[in-house]
Each structure stands twice: as C-alpha cells, then as structure tokens.
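Case study.
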Amino acid sequence: MAVSLSVNGKSYSVDVPPQMPLLWVLRDVVGLTGTKFGCGMALCGACTVHVNGVAQRSCILPVNAVKGPVTTIEGLSASGDHPVQKAWIANNVPQCGYCQAGQIMQAAALLARTPSPSDADIDAAMGGNICRCGTYTRIRAAVKQAAKQGGTR
Amino acid sequence: MNPPVDRTTHRDDLIVANVSRRRFLQGLSLGGLVLAVGYPSAARAEEKKYGADGMPNGWVDSPVAFVSIADNGTVTIVCHRSEMGQGVRTGMPMIVADELEADWKRVRVAQAPGDEKKFGNQDTDGSRSTRHFFEPMRRCGAAARTMLEAAAAERWKVPVSEVEAKNHEVVHRPTGRRLGYGALARAAASQPVPARETLRLKDPKQFRYIGKGQLKLVDGPDIATGKAQYGIDTRLPGMLYAVVARPPVYGGKVVSFDPAEALKVPGVERVVQIEASPPPAHFNPLGGVAVLASNTWAAMQGRKALKITWDNGPNAGYDSVAFKATLEESARTPGKVVRNDGDFTAAAAGAARRHDAEYYIPHLAHATMEAPAATVRIANGKCDVWACVQSPQATRDLVAKRLGMSADDVTVHVTLLGGGFGRKSKPDYAIEAAVLSKAVDGKPVKVTWTREDDLHNSYYHTVSVEHLEAGVDGQGKPVAWLHRSVAPTIISTFNAEAKNEAPFELGMGVINVPFAIPNIRIENPEAKAHTRIGWFRSVSNIPHAFAVQSFVAELAAAAGRDPKDFLPEMLGDTWNHGESPERYPVDTGRLRGVVETVAREAGWGRKLPKGHGLGIAAHYSFVSYIAAVVEVAVDDKGTLTIPRVDMAVDCGATVNPDRVRSQMEGACVMGVGIATQSEISFKEGRVEQDNFNDYVVTRMAEAPRIVRVHIVPGDYSKPMGGVGEPGVPPIPPALCNAIYAATGKRIRRLPIGDQLKV
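After joint prediction, the assembly is written out as follows.
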C-alpha cells in the first residue's frame, strides 16, 4: 500500500504495510537513520520526532496514523544550528550520543511550547527520554542555555 | 571491564620471542600522501608483562599507522579504540595532535578497522585506552612532528636544529621562513621514522590541548544533527534485515520450528536456523531461528509468527529467589580461603564486640541504548563486517573462524557504539550476522537486537552475596575481618566448570581490601553459573565496594564515630599487605586523599534540611581512586531524591578533563540506577524483565540534580589511571550510607526498590 508522507519538507510515497511504525519507515525505507530504535514501546524516547511540531514516539506510531508533516533530527535545522543543537554541542552533552537525537527533538518541542522551562517542566518533558550514559545534568544545562538563547529557532 | 582470560581465543598467539625491548625502524615508502609502512610489531620481553605490554598485540606508536597529512594540510589521525561515549575519538587524537603541533581545526579523525598488528591492542575495555596509549600516542605525534621538521630543514638546506614545528607549520628560526604541514607532507613521508629514543617529547607546560579540556567532541556536531553512524545504522544495497529468536534459557536449543506463518508476512524473505552453541557460551551465538526480511519491522513481525519448540536444557530451573537462598547458605559456610592474615577466629573470639552483615546485588544488564547490531557482507572471498564492537580484532578472528576464512580476508569496520559498558566486548551478534550472510550467499545481512533480545540474552553482571564479619576492640576499631564473597564467575562463560571467582574478580576490592587490620580472612565459597556471566562496567567492584563500604559505615555507626573520620583511619599509611605494588597497586595515601577532598568539597558536616543525609564511600579500581559523598532526601512517604553528589577522582594526570568529568557524571547516574532500581531476575530459566518498563534505569527526575566532580591534579610523569569504570563502585554504598544518615535504615539488598516506602 502506498502511503504519502512529508519528511523534513520532502514528499515521499512509500509502499509499506499501513501498520508499520513511522520509525522503521524512516530508517529502513526512507533511509533517514538519525531517528533511533531504543525500545519499540515508547519507553525510552530515542525515536522521538515531531509530527506537526509535536514530539511523538515514532516507534509506536503506525505510518497511516501520521497526520501532518514529520520533522526528524536531520531536518530540525538546515545546518545544525537550532539553538538546542548549538547548546548540545557547546555543553559537550553527548557521551555515546545514541539517545541524543531523541533528547534534542524532545527538548526542541518543549522549548517551542515553553520558552523558559522550570526544572519541573524539564523533568516532566524529558522524563520519557532515557540516557543510559547518564548525561542528565548536562541535558538540563543545555536546555536552559538554549532557552536563554531564544529557544526555538 | 577486564576480559576474563585476556581474550581467550588468541592468547596463545601473542607471545613474541624476545628480540629486544627496543623496536627497530623500517624505512618508509611514499604512499601518496600517507605516511606508509610500519614499524615491525613490537618485540616483547619475556618477563611478566604489565599494562599495554601485557595486552594482546601490545601497543604501536608509529605515525605511519596513525597519521597522514594531505597536500592541503589536513591532518588525519586514526583512533584505534572504539568510541562508546568515553570520548576516546576526541582524547586519543588530541594526544597525537598536541605532540604533532597540529592545529586542531585542521585535524580529522578516522576510525581504525580491527587490525591489532597494525595498531596495537584494540580491546576497548578495562578503562585502559588512555592509560595504555598516552605514551605511545605522544611518541607517535612527536615522531611525525620530527619528520616534518626534517623535511623542512632538507628543503631549506639548514640544520634541523634551526627549525621548529609550531601550530601546523615549520618555522626556520633564524630567517622566519615558514612552510605549512600540507606543503611538507610528501617530503615528510619519505623521511625515516625517527628512533624512539631520539624523540623529543614536549614539556607538559607546552601542551596546547592535553589537560586543557577546551576542545569540543569531534562527533558532537554529527550526533546533534543525526549524521553519526552507529552499528544499527548500516545500510547496504540489497541488504536483508534480520532478527533472531534465541533460546529463552541459557543452554537451550531448538527442537523443531515451523517457518510457514513467518514466511507469509509481507517482506519476509528467508527463515534460517542458527546452530546452538552449547555452554560455555564464549562469544558464540546462542543459536535460534532468524527471520530475514526487506526491513526490520517485517523481520520482527515474521519472528512473532514463528512456531518454535525449545529444549530449555539444564538451566530451565534457574530461579533468582531460590538462588539467592543458595548463595546465602554458601556465604554462611566456610569456603576456599584466598587470603589469611593473622588469626581471624581467635581475634574475633577475643574481640570486645562482633558485627556481621550480608549484602546482595542481583544480576544486571548493560542495556546499552543501542542494542547489539551488526552487518556482514561476504563477496569475492572477502568478508566485511560493520559493527558496534569494543573488540574489533576478536570480532575479526571469531567471524573468520566461524566462516572458515582467514582473518586476513575479514575486515571489521568499527562504527560508533551506542553505549558499550562491556556488552559489546562480546561479538556474538557479529557472528550471527556472518552466519546469516553466508546462508544467503554472502548478501549483506544486518542483525538488529530488540530491547527484549538485549535483556533476555545478555552477558549479565553476576549475582552475589557478600558476607562480612568483624570483631572490634573497645574503641570500635576492627581487629578481625572476615569477608566471604560468593558469586558466579565470569570464567564460567569460558569454562562451564568454573565455580570460584577469578583472581581478577577477587582483586576488585576483596583480597586487596585496603585496611590495616591484623587479622583478615577472605573466603570464596563456590557458586555455579546458570546464565552467561559477563563483565559490566566496573565488574566485581560493584558488589565488593557496596559490601565493604557499607560495612565500614556500619562499623562506624556501631562505634558511634563519624564515618568520614572512621574510614580513613582504617587505611594504613603505605601498607600494602607486603605485596608488590604492581600486583596489589593500592596506594592508601591517595585513597585517603580523595576521601579528604570529597569531604571538604561536599561540605561534610554541613547543616541539612530534615529528611536529608550525607553518605561517604571510597573505592580503588582500575588503578584510580574515587570517593563520593551523596546527599539524599527521603520524604515521609519514603520517596528518595538525590539533590547532590560530589565525587573526587585521582586518576593521575588527565588528557581531557571534560571527559573525566562526564565519565564520573555518567558513572554516578549508573551507580544510582544500580542502587535504586535495576534488577535482572530469572524464573524457570528465563529473564523476567522485557523492556524499560520492568528493567528500570535512572531517568532525569531520579538522577542527582547536581553532580560535582573534583579532579585531584596529577603529574604527567606518573602513570595514568582508568576513568570509564571506577566512578561506579563508590556510588551505591555512598547512597545507602546517606539513606542511613537520613533515616536510620540500613540497606543491604539492592536494588532499594520500595524498601524505603512507608
């Protein structure tokens, strides 16, 4: 079945089962591997993308339920200069980096809605994103720095 | 993480006859812009070898292996260790670049394939990369710098003593003439590599990058933009995507299977059985049934549709509740004596008071965010592997062995690792991909492990009971110390009969307990393994430090003493059991130093809000000294939060202090998870946890809000210590000691779970 999809401003028509999660469509069919597989059950946040600007777990989102344009880490900014990306690089947030695409997408969605998040806001928004390397203190610092520098884009 | 038996497969190949400790230099040929050809591999002395000398294939310090310079001046430095978050792809090239006087902005980092003859040992575990390769990488950079200087002197026809490399160019001091590294690259490549003993290393005061911490991560921008390539990200033309149904019980195997329903799933192309490897597991695949499809999702759907009858084998009865009782029984019965100083029994009988305690830590899984993944393609007699592995040479050798090929025909391309923690030292998943590629005539096959696969079929951290008894004098000072450590050994993964902890396990804080007590007996009763036991970040230091550092705090409390004063008093001055410092390298002065530093920095004794408490612990591991003070808050419902942790680290001098800090921060979070929530348990031979809903790891709100890392300044002329692992062990006991301070409740069984709930 052909499914139409807008990803990072480009249109795709993909021939996949309608129940296939967006994650696997992105990774294996479209070929955008920046969105990561961590758990397959929306438990870890590694697969976070934006659908209509809202953070979504792509690992449990059937592709036929995607209603709106999708933004992945590859499309968050044209040249890697979204304030969240810049803050991540400036704070040397990543260790292994595997979860960080999801963390960045989650943080960008948070700041789009809540430009000056409190610690409790950050805990609530980022609580679904696991970092096994334990970079949480730097994630928090980078979210706050990105917020100071004008948050969204 | 220490390999159990030095990487069992090629241990025997490693012994090279002693020609001389000095390595001779081969001439260099022009390899385009690349400094080509290498030193002959190191000739090894036959005496007992330590450090990098004692590792398979040792070390290499040739710029020919590690450095190339392009005409445009771009310097490419090879990183031969695997990047799994420790920052090695930044730190290792930084060492070379510093001695090379390279401008970091013009440095590119290339990842080495698995090739230890060329690059030296590549086993990225045991917290060893920097401490084993700091000196070779310095020499490597210095040699390349010397070659550039020699080329410039030749060009200008001036004595080499008049020229000096400085920030990516060579300067002729008397005339001020300059030549960039790009302009000199070809001529430098034809210079002989200077003899090691003639190399002029920098005075550490001249370092521009080492120890400064100003450089950003080389992979930071790629990670932040989704370009970073991990093992799971490999995509090749015509590639099939595979998932494997593995035996649910260790030692189990397929009796029969029906692939019919799986093959009906759209996208599924093949179903292939992988032969079981009977225990001991080594690094072999567990066997099972693989589904190969046109995408991962289809393979996963196909696997669900498989009908498999399993023979669960001899471990079908493994039950964690029952096994805990078995371990406790063993811990209460005398076992193999592994150290016996003085007379514990007599001293304990004559002691003013006795104190006993038992501590339990369950199995743990590494749960790397990127579960194991590997891709293999076999074509024209060559095999290519793309994998997130900590052990690229072992991967190469074992894939070759399984395929019946020569390792020379196998290339292992090392991707970034989405976490390692010791799991990815064991390349069973790469061998699976190789078996499957072979089954489909060499087509590229990527094997992806799901989170469930990762938790159900890991190489688990052991499960242990630590039994401690002390006799104390009238002041509460211990005069007799008994420690029985009972835990299935990692060796069981290589020798099914092994039931005692190996020296490298007992040496992680049991035998070498750093206390000045005249009567010490250490015993190690037997324990049988019923699953694959493997090394997990900081390995046996976790249970040992938890038990010992909790017990010391219990003794302090029983004596009515401040644990911060009591702990350093138990340490001798330079006392080391009369053993050689190489064999038992504990410097109690440095351990005392980190205790004092962390206590001062944490404001030990400061006034705390109600329900808060401070706990302290210190532990020596991976030749580094770490102490931690944890502040906890426990509310009236028993909810635990961690406002702040202070850690003091003495790992000697540092290359990249920012990554030392980040490793401590991460180790702290992992230690908190081990202490509070994480547990792998077995019932009827199967792991009971499936995913992050029931294998609980620390999330942001539960993580310490503040982690302050205090690095004790080091001296570059002294050996460096490890950093990746030693931050973990002091955290669980410091946390539990803080809970005791806050609530009076002593935790002896991890994870804490709901033990604090009211």
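Observations recorded in class. The first helix of chain B runs from residue 63 to 66. Chain B has three domains: 8-215, 231-314+372-448, 320-364+460-743. We will return to this complex in the next lecture.
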